């Protein structure tokens, strides 16, 4: 819910009373467009159904909002990019490590924002598979709440700091339960894909460890603003992703 200035007379959709004032008369839900008094917003349940006309883009949009608006289990950008990568890129050397041309990655982002699931990311449009891997990584980096959420972050880091393998898996299980359903399902789908990438390691040279280096800071961001603490966490972020890939079949 965001403070909003309404043009013309508006009534609260919770209490049905007039919303007074010239500016900032109430709050509006960015997902479904609900208009209510600020004081009434405390009584409104936080389980709205996002309306596509209020969800203007794919990138930088809250993951749960996006999947609810499109009636999908996972963001369509994740499904489409992974399908494309698996159909023609699994043997590509340095997959996910090699960067694609940034202007073309930006093109893919704009195509998804503009056309949604009708975006054309085929080989005819983007011959270099590193453009598609770059677009997928950018999607995760642009999320307002990371795929591994700030709430779950400390538990995931705790698992990487633990030396006992059984205890690591136990803590990871607990950490996964802290993720919202859409985040957990997207993480499961991504880890299953990255596991398949490692099966082609002889050709693509991408082990679980290498993918952990790439995806650690892409999927996780430290909640604290302390730069030193965030820097120290980078090696644990890498380990978290490496463990998730290696134990994908047990954890999900």
From TrEMBL:
Topology class, membrane: Peripheral membrane protein
Keywords, sorted A to Z: GTPase activation, Membrane, Metal-binding, Zinc, Zinc-finger
Entry-linked PROSITE patterns: RHOGAP (PS50238), ZF_DAG_PE_2 (PS50081)
One GO MF term: zinc ion binding
The Phorbol-ester/DAG-type domain, residue ranges: 1-48
CDD domains reported for this sequence: RhoGAP_chimaerin (cd04372)
SMART domains in the record: C1, RhoGAP
One GO-annotated biological process of the protein: ephrin receptor signaling pathway
Domain of life: Eukaryota
Membrane-crossing segments per the record: none
Claim: Transit peptide is one of the keywords in the record: no
Domain Rho-GAP: 61-252
GO-annotated cellular components: membrane
Claim: Zinc is one of the keywords in the record: yes
Locations listed in the record: Membrane
Pfam family, one: RhoGAP
Protein name: Beta-chimaerin
């Amino acid at each position: 819910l965001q403070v909003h200035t309404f043009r013309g007379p508006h009534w609260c959709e919770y209490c049905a009373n007039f919303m007074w004032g010239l500016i900032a008369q109430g709050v509006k839900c960015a997902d479904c467009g609900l208009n209510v008094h600020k004081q009434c917003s405390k009584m409104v349940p936080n389980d709205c159904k996002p309306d596509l006309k209020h969800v203007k883009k794919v990138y930088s949009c809250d993951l749960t909002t996006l999947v609810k608006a499109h009636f999908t289990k996972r963001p369509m950008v994740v499904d489409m990019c992974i399908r494309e990568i698996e159909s023609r890129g699994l043997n590509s050397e340095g997959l996910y490590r090699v960067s694609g041309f940034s202007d073309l990655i930006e093109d893919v982002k704009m195509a998804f924002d503009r056309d949604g699931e009708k975006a054309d990311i085929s080989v005819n449009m983007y011959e270099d598979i590193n453009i598609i891997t770059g677009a997928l990584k950018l999607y995760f980096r642009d999320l307002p709440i990371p795929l591994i959420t700030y709430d779950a972050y400390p538990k995931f880091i705790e698992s990487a700091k633990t030396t006992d393998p059984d205890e690591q898996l136990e803590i990871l299980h607990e950490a996964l339960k802290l993720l919202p359903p859409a985040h957990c399902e997207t993480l499961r789908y991504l880890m299953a894909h990255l596991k398949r990438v490692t099966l082609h390691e002889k050709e693509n040279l991408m082990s679980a460890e290498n993918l952990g280096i790439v995806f650690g800071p892409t999927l996780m961001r430290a909640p604290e603003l302390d730069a030193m603490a965030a820097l120290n966490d980078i090696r644990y972020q890498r380990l978290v992703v490496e463990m998730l890939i290696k134990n994908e079949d047990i954890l999900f």
